[in-house]
Amino acid sequence: MQLKIDRPIVFFDLETTGVSFSEDRIVDVALLKRHPDGREESFDSLVQPGIAIPAEATAIHHITNEMVRDAPTFRVLGPKLLELFHGCDIGGFGVSRYDLPMLAGEFKRNGLLWSVEGRRVVDAMKIFH
Fold first, then answer.
1. Which of 36, 44, 107, 115 could form an SS bridge with 30, CB 3.0 to 4.6 Å?
2. Neighbouring residues of 27: CB distance < 8 A, sequence distance ≥ 6
Protein backbone atom coordinates (compact mmCIF):
# COMPACT_ATOMS: atom_id res chain seq x y z
CA MET A 1 0.00 0.00 0.00
CA GLN A 2 1.38 3.39 -1.00
CA LEU A 3 0.94 6.00 1.73
CA LYS A 4 0.13 9.35 0.07
CA ILE A 5 1.20 12.26 2.25
CA ASP A 6 2.08 15.88 1.57
CA ARG A 7 4.45 16.32 4.51
CA PRO A 8 6.39 13.94 6.74
CA ILE A 9 4.54 11.87 9.34
CA VAL A 10 6.09 10.44 12.49
CA PHE A 11 4.64 7.24 13.91
CA PHE A 12 5.81 6.81 17.49
CA ASP A 13 5.41 4.84 20.68
CA LEU A 14 6.54 5.40 24.25
CA GLU A 15 7.17 3.15 27.21
CA THR A 16 6.98 4.79 30.62
CA THR A 17 7.25 4.31 34.38
CA GLY A 18 3.45 4.57 34.68
CA VAL A 19 0.37 6.39 33.42
CA SER A 20 0.53 9.73 35.28
CA PHE A 21 1.43 12.56 32.90
CA SER A 22 2.69 14.70 35.77
CA GLU A 23 4.64 12.13 37.81
CA ASP A 24 5.74 9.33 35.50
CA ARG A 25 8.55 9.45 32.97
CA ILE A 26 9.47 8.03 29.57
CA VAL A 27 11.85 5.04 29.58
CA ASP A 28 11.81 4.26 25.84
CA VAL A 29 10.93 6.18 22.69
CA ALA A 30 10.68 4.64 19.24
CA LEU A 31 9.65 6.34 16.04
CA LEU A 32 9.47 5.94 12.31
CA LYS A 33 9.42 9.07 10.15
CA ARG A 34 8.02 8.67 6.64
CA HIS A 35 8.70 11.40 4.08
CA PRO A 36 6.40 12.18 1.11
CA ASP A 37 9.04 10.80 -1.27
CA GLY A 38 8.99 7.45 0.56
CA ARG A 39 12.24 7.87 2.49
CA GLU A 40 12.13 6.63 6.07
CA GLU A 41 14.08 7.49 9.20
CA SER A 42 13.88 5.55 12.42
CA PHE A 43 14.94 6.33 15.96
CA ASP A 44 14.81 4.20 19.10
CA SER A 45 16.37 4.87 22.47
CA LEU A 46 16.05 3.84 26.05
CA VAL A 47 15.72 6.84 28.35
CA GLN A 48 17.11 7.26 31.89
CA PRO A 49 13.94 8.50 33.65
CA GLY A 50 15.57 9.81 36.82
CA ILE A 51 13.10 7.78 38.91
CA ALA A 52 12.78 4.08 39.60
CA ILE A 53 10.79 1.96 37.17
CA PRO A 54 8.08 0.19 39.18
CA ALA A 55 7.90 -3.61 38.90
CA GLU A 56 4.36 -3.24 37.51
CA ALA A 57 5.66 -1.18 34.57
CA THR A 58 8.58 -3.55 33.96
CA ALA A 59 6.09 -6.45 33.86
CA ILE A 60 4.37 -4.74 30.92
CA HIS A 61 7.28 -3.42 28.81
CA HIS A 62 10.16 -5.52 30.20
CA ILE A 63 12.45 -2.50 30.62
CA THR A 64 14.38 -2.63 33.88
CA ASN A 65 16.20 -0.05 35.97
CA GLU A 66 19.46 -1.75 35.04
CA MET A 67 18.70 -1.40 31.32
CA VAL A 68 18.26 2.39 31.55
CA ARG A 69 21.05 3.04 34.07
CA ASP A 70 23.45 4.41 31.42
CA ALA A 71 20.84 5.58 28.90
CA PRO A 72 20.60 9.28 27.98
CA THR A 73 18.10 11.42 29.85
CA PHE A 74 15.15 13.08 28.15
CA ARG A 75 16.96 16.41 28.56
CA VAL A 76 19.72 15.01 26.31
CA LEU A 77 17.36 13.33 23.81
CA GLY A 78 14.79 16.15 23.67
CA PRO A 79 16.53 18.36 21.06
CA LYS A 80 16.98 15.37 18.72
CA LEU A 81 13.29 14.48 19.13
CA LEU A 82 12.26 18.07 18.41
CA GLU A 83 14.31 17.89 15.21
CA LEU A 84 12.73 14.59 14.17
CA PHE A 85 9.17 15.86 14.84
CA HIS A 86 9.75 19.27 13.19
CA GLY A 87 7.19 20.02 10.47
CA CYS A 88 5.62 16.57 10.76
CA ASP A 89 2.19 15.14 11.24
CA ILE A 90 1.88 12.48 13.94
CA GLY A 91 0.59 8.91 13.98
CA GLY A 92 0.38 5.98 16.31
CA PHE A 93 -1.94 3.80 18.35
CA GLY A 94 -3.51 5.58 21.32
CA VAL A 95 -1.32 8.63 20.80
CA SER A 96 -4.12 11.15 21.43
CA ARG A 97 -4.99 9.82 24.88
CA TYR A 98 -1.59 8.81 26.15
CA ASP A 99 1.61 9.23 24.14
CA LEU A 100 1.11 12.87 23.09
CA PRO A 101 0.27 14.16 26.60
CA MET A 102 3.17 12.17 28.07
CA LEU A 103 5.59 13.48 25.43
CA ALA A 104 4.33 17.05 25.88
CA GLY A 105 4.85 16.75 29.63
CA GLU A 106 8.45 15.60 29.19
CA PHE A 107 9.23 18.42 26.77
CA LYS A 108 7.71 20.97 29.17
CA ARG A 109 9.52 19.56 32.25
CA ASN A 110 12.78 19.89 30.35
CA GLY A 111 12.17 23.46 29.18
CA LEU A 112 11.67 22.54 25.52
CA LEU A 113 8.91 24.18 23.48
CA TRP A 114 6.72 21.74 21.54
CA SER A 115 3.15 21.69 20.34
CA VAL A 116 0.83 19.59 18.20
CA GLU A 117 -0.88 22.74 16.94
CA GLY A 118 -1.08 22.75 13.14
CA ARG A 119 -0.28 19.04 12.90
CA ARG A 120 -2.59 16.30 11.74
CA VAL A 121 -2.82 13.46 14.25
CA VAL A 122 -3.69 9.99 12.98
CA ASP A 123 -4.62 7.80 15.95
CA ALA A 124 -5.14 4.18 14.83
CA MET A 125 -6.94 3.42 18.10
CA LYS A 126 -9.62 6.00 17.28
CA ILE A 127 -9.94 4.58 13.78
CA PHE A 128 -10.16 1.03 15.13
CA HIS A 129 -12.86 1.90 17.66
1. 44
2. 15, 16, 17, 46, 47, 49, 53, 57, 61, 63, 68
